[in-house]
Design brief:
alpha/beta, eight-stranded mixed β-sheet, 8 strands, globular
């Protein structure tokens, strides 16, 4: 399926998820009606203190696979950009960490999510935040303007991940940090998983293989690339998710057991122009 079609499906489903929250429900991956389909990925990501400091709707709209704000080591005064900011939970947490001298941008293409995020910002009374409308393939910010890029289980939804990573590299300042949570895959994935748009929207089918992710980051210009697994998903956790996508859990689940992981992906834009070679690079292009 082409990139525009993928974007339209993602926009539709995440718009539905935002409407769920507006109706007082908890959002689910892909905009489904219950938590059973996405709970294995989205549960237990934030501490009680973090959740308690935010509007309930920001927590209810969280559809991530990690907590990048806790792992990115944000510093006071930094400018942070969240790619695919959804209901705004990671943007609001980032804004608190960078303080009044810093700024946190959230980028989302879904009108419903942007409206929800801006309302959450109002409720949280956070001033150093700005939510932007746009796609992660075309970031509406100038080059060399951001200290840190975060993202929470969104880049895997893009049909053009190379372009996303090039855009991330462009807007980062020299020495800027790329620090995201995402779903990755280890080994071969059954074709029926890749073909299912419901699973793509649910953060699984678009997942890159671990070394492919490293290679794409390397080709975009990043250095100091590191992938740290934070959770390995078992097939037993995905049975409801697979069934909701119209797949036979008994046939598919054994084929994906342990192959999907949540990971924290780190990289850095070089301080100066030049080749990107370092001891932490394990992309095929620089390890063979």
């Amino acid at each position: 399926m082409s990139e525009p079609n993928i974007q339209e499906v993602v926009k539709e489903k995440y718009g539905a998820a935002a409407k769920q929250v507006a109706e007082g429900k908890t959002a689910c991956c892909g905009g489904g009606g219950s938590l059973s389909g996405c709970d294995p990925i989205t549960r237990n990501l934030y501490g009680e203190a973090e959740k308690g400091s935010l509007p309930a709707d920001a927590v209810a709209a969280s559809l991530g696979c990690g907590n990048p704000t806790a792992l990115a080591k944000l510093q006071a005064g930094e400018v942070v950009l969240d790619l695919g900011s959804g209901g705004g939970i990671d943007v609001l947490l980032s804004a608190k960490r960078v303080g009044p001298t810093g700024k946190a941008y959230g980028l989302d293409m879904t009108d419903e999510m942007l409206a929800l995020a801006r309302e959450n910002q109002r409720k949280a009374d956070v001033q150093n935040v700005e939510f932007l409308k746009g796609t992660i393939e075309n970031i509406p910010l100038p080059g060399n303007s951001v200290d840190v890029i975060i993202s929470n289980c969104v880049i895997n939804l893009s049909g053009d991940k190379d372009r996303v990573l090039r855009e991330a590299f462009r807007v980062l300042k020299p020495g800027g940090r790329f620090a995201i949570s995402d779903v990755l895959v280890r080994g071969e994935v059954p074709p029926e998983i890749r073909k299912s748009m419901e699973l793509w929207v649910g953060c699984i089918a678009g997942a890159l293989e671990e070394y492919e992710y490293r290679d794409k980051l390397f080709r975009a210009g990043f250095e100091a690339i590191d992938i740290e697994p934070t959770r390995v998903y078992k097939s037993s956790e995905a049975r409801d998710f697979l069934a909701a996508a119209g797949l036979d859990p008994d046939k598919v689940a054994p084929l994906i057991d342990g192959k999907f992981i949540s990971a924290f992906v780190r990289a850095q834009k070089p301080n100066a122009r030049g080749s990107v070679v370092g001891p932490s690079c394990c992309a095929p292009t620089c390890c063979n």
